[in-house]
Amino acid sequence: MRIFSRMPSNSDIDDIGHKYHLEFVLEDIFEKDSTVNCTAEVLYHLGNKKSAPDVQFTIEGELKNTDEADKTFYNRIKSLKKELEAENIPDSYGNVSPEMQPIRALTWAASGYVIWQNSTENTKYQLAQIKHVKQVKRTDEYLEFDYMILLHENVSQEIIPWQMTVLWHPQHGVEVTQNSRQPKHALD
Fold this sequence. Notes:
Keywords: Protease inhibitor, Repeat. GO terms for molecular function: metalloendopeptidase inhibitor activity. This is Latexin. It comes from Pavo cristatus. This protein is an alpha+beta fold. It has 2 domains: 2-60, Roll (Nuclear Transport Factor 2, Chain: A); 67-187, Nuclear Transport Factor 2, Chain: A, CATH 3.10.450. The protein has 2 helices and 10 strands; from the N terminus they run βββββαβαββββ. Strands 1, 2, 3, 4 and 5 form a 5-stranded antiparallel beta sheet that branches. A 5-stranded antiparallel beta sheet has the order 6-7-8-9-10. A hairpin with a 3-residue loop joins β2 (9-13) and β3. It is globular. It starts with a strand and ends in a 7-residue tail after the last strand.
């Protein structure tokens, strides 16, 4: 999904924080004609830089059902003889191969959690690239991936390497089991 936002309004809540009211449109990244309107209220707590903002949202309409595509991707990855491993998605020209589109979509979902957990009023993170992804062998039904992603912090223009481990199953969704900001030299 891609977000197109309208101008947010905000209010101060004494001794608690700043609350923002947002109205925006989500667009399916694969089917550009599929959109839904959304509203959200985001509360950033005063003086607590380590706490994720509180978010309440509503979606007006239905998001596209991805069950079949999820099952197809899951079965493809489960049937691989060797664990998946890939680098530089998208490549330096912005291209993503069709077989890597589901990996990119999964990464967007997982990085959204990382971004939310680490956001402040003064940051604006965005997934720039999957620097490296490697599937971890498991004996249960879940797929596990270790990632090194690059987040672009739009305010400072900094590119931040971030490690995350992600569990996924089409019936249970995405879970980020660990994540941490990495030093710049992690890219070397």
